[in-house]
Every structure is written in structure tokens, then in C-alpha cells.
UniProtKB/TrEMBL annotation:
This is Chemotaxis protein CheW. It comes from Marinicella pacifica. Pfam families: CheW. GO terms for biological process: chemotaxis; signal transduction. PROSITE patterns: CHEW.
Length: 157
């Protein structure tokens, strides 16, 4: 169908997912070692090596406040979704999101998505709250995420 797009649902917590166009997902890879990064932001887990890049890895659940405690232990079923930056690719071409399971590829049409305007968005990192086939999902605010990551990972002058 011409009005469908390929989307990816990335599990970020037991009952929460991120919804992104498939074109924004560069790769999904198995969990690997995470290098420390100097920051007091607990949601920025560190950096991971990917195709010669050291890219920041975030825990979206921790960032948005749904998950209040420290990052939970990473397990072998966790994955890393590498995302393409769309607003500031010259400053940060890619970053990664912790995936608590295997992301799911899905064809989505306009009628498949229900916007939840009655629910208050509780964090700037979330652009919209939606449901798709009875699953709740967050559409991330990519500009906010990229801007925050650039400011936290920029090399000091």
C-alpha cells in the first residue's frame, strides 16, 4: 500500500516502545562492551564502538523518568539500536538506544496509529504518545535528543 511506511518498534521497557521510521535505524546489534563517559547523566550509559565510531548509548526509559532508579543490569537479551541523527548529523552522525529485547519491523499506515493527545507528555525527549495495534509507543523528539547528546559529548575547546 502506498500510504504505508516501514517502522521499527524498539522495546525500551516491559510495556514501552519507541516508534521510529525504519530509515532512521542504521543497525540493530547484540549487546557489547560499553565504554565509560564522563557525565553525571545516568541515562547516558557510555559509548559503544560501531563501524569505527564511538557513539553515545542512551537508556530512553531512564532519560524520560519512567524508570526512576539506576539503570538495571544489562542482560544478554538486550540489544543496541544505532540511530541516524537527522537534525545535526555534522555534529553527531549517530547515537544508540538501549533495546530491552528485539526491535520489531512493522508496516504502518496512518490508520494504524492513534495519537494520545489526552495523555500529558512528561518529558521533552518525547514528541508524541501513540498506540499502534494496541501497543503504547513513544515517538522521540530527535532534535531534543541530538542537542542534549551533542552538549554532553562535545570535546572541550
Amino acid at each position: 500500500m502506498a500510504n504505508e511506511i516501514r517502522a521499527v518498534l524498539i522495546p525500551i521497557e516491559a510495556n514501552r516502545k519507541l516508534l521510529l521510521p525504519n530509515a532512521m535505524v542504521a543497525e540493530v546489534m547484540a549487546m557489547r562492551s560499553i565504554d565509560d563517559i564522563e557525565t553525571d547523566q545516568k541515562w547516558l550509559l557510555g559509548t559503544v564502538s560501531w563501524r569505527g565510531w564511538d557513539i553515545p548509548l542512551i537508556d530512553f526509559g531512564l532519560l524520560t523518568g519512567y524508570q526512576h532508579e539506576e539503570p538495571t543490569n544489562l542482560v544478554s537479551t538486550d540489544n543496541i539500536a544505532v540511530l541516524k541523527c537527522i537534525n545535526h548529523p555534522q555534529d553527531l552522525p549517530y547515537f544508540a538506544v538501549l533495546s530491552r529485547g528485539i526491535p520489531k519491523l512493522q508496516l504502518v499506515s496512518r490508520g494504524d496509529i492513534q495519537l494520545h493527545e489526552e495523555q500529558e507528555v512528561i518529558h521533552h525527549a518525547i514528541a508524541s504518545l501513540v498506540s499502534i495495534e494496541d501497543e503504547m509507543a513513544d515517538i522521540p523528539n530527535m532534535n531534543y535528543l541530538e542537542t542534549q547528546l551533542i552538549s554532553l559529548t562535545a570535546e572541550p575547546a
